[in-house]
Design goal:
Elements (H helix, E strand, L loop, with lengths): L1 H7 L1 H6 L7 H7 L21 H21 L7 H18 L3 H4 L4 H21 L2 H8 L2 H19 L2 H14 L3 H7 L3 H27 L5 H24 L6 H6 L7 H13 L4 H27 L1
Helix pairs in contact: 4-8, 5-7, 7-12, 7-15, 8-9, 10-12, 10-13, 12-13, 13-15, 13-16
């Protein structure tokens, strides 16, 4: 029944796919480098746009080392928080530097994995590491105060707007995976970069708002649960559309995927499954965390009522 309902909803999405006649044009315009897929060891993408994230990583490491030297290891920023940030940094560079960015030119599944890491996995891990506190400790005191003065109000503004963050998060996820949008993004390197930047920014905004509710449940457990459930449903439905699509929706990959030994339709189905199943896990984990906080609040409230 669910499969039938999903297939019934495919026609609008299929209508946005480029026509088969446009295949040579789309492929010719694609911003793919090279005529053959790279070997795994050579699947590196080095870009000057990665220098700012690398600089922030270095500042964070220096700041945590300085903080632990002053306050003791594990104090101020815990081991778990620092480990989460490092895991987020590894995920980010796997998505942007090696190997997914290079293989994303040949496989829709690799491209989808890159998008989901930038949107759903890297942002919550990086934010869990309290990056502002870590970076601030790497700077001189005067610069640190200025950093908090600039970034703090922006972060609070973003955290207080869970609704718009949810709409932006789901909108970026859906709109950039419309076949016509993918075709346009692949036609220009700057548009391709803008697409990835949109995933990062939408991911950070949404997870800033969610982390506010995880760390301070009194700010609204119910709203956080609704937001996480909404994004999970949208992501799952979009992934299901790709998984059950009866024909290839992304013509550029119809010629590129076979060069990796992949069937184009199977590659598209794998991309849909990546969006549908594993990419939903961070949202489900956040929802479970908030749900446990909600039950704990009810338990304490019930206990206080009994005491009275």
């Amino acid at each position: 029944m669910r499969v039938t309902a999903t297939l019934a909803c495919l026609s609008p999405l299929l209508g946005l796919a480029p026509d088969a006649a446009a295949l040579p044009r789309v492929t010719a315009l694609a911003c793919f480098a090279g005529d053959a897929p790279p070997a795994l060891g050579g699947a590196w993408t080095l870009s000057p746009f990665l220098l700012p994230p690398a600089a922030l990583l270095v500042l964070y490491l220096v700041g945590v080392a300085r903080l632990w030297r002053q306050a003791g290891a594990g104090h101020g920023i815990g081991y778990g928080e620092a480990s989460a940030f490092m895991a987020g940094a590894v995920v980010f560079f796997l998505a942007t530097m090696w190997p997914l960015d290079a293989f994303g030119a040949w496989s829709l599944a690799a491209h989808m994995g890159q998008h989901m890491l930038l949107l759903a996995v890297a942002p919550p891990l990086l934010l869990a590491g309290r990056p502002l506190a870590g970076i601030a400790h790497a700077l001189p005191a005067r610069w640190s105060r200025r950093l908090h003065g600039w970034v703090g109000p922006v972060q609070r503004w973003l955290a207080a707007r869970l609704g718009p963050a949810t709409v932006a998060h789901a909108g970026v996820m859906v709109l950039w995976h419309v076949p016509a949008a993918i075709a346009v993004a692949l036609s220009d390197p700057l548009l391709h970069l803008a697409m990835h930047l949109a995933f990062v920014l939408a991911g950070l905004w949404f997870w800033i708002a969610v982390w506010q509710r995880i760390r301070q449940p009194d700010t609204g457990v119910a709203a956080g649960l609704v937001a996480l459930l909404t994004v999970t449903l949208v992501m799952g439905f979009t992934g299901a559309l790709l998984t059950f699509a009866p024909r290839i929706l992304y013509p550029a990959y119809a010629l590129r995927a076979p060069m990796l030994g992949l069937d184009p339709l199977a590659d598209q189905q794998l991309a849909g499954l990546l969006m549908w199943v594993p990419s939903c896990l961070p949202y489900l984990a956040g929802g479970l965390w908030l749900l446990l906080h909600g039950f704990e609040r009810l338990r304490r409230r019930h206990g206080a009522t009994v005491m009275e």
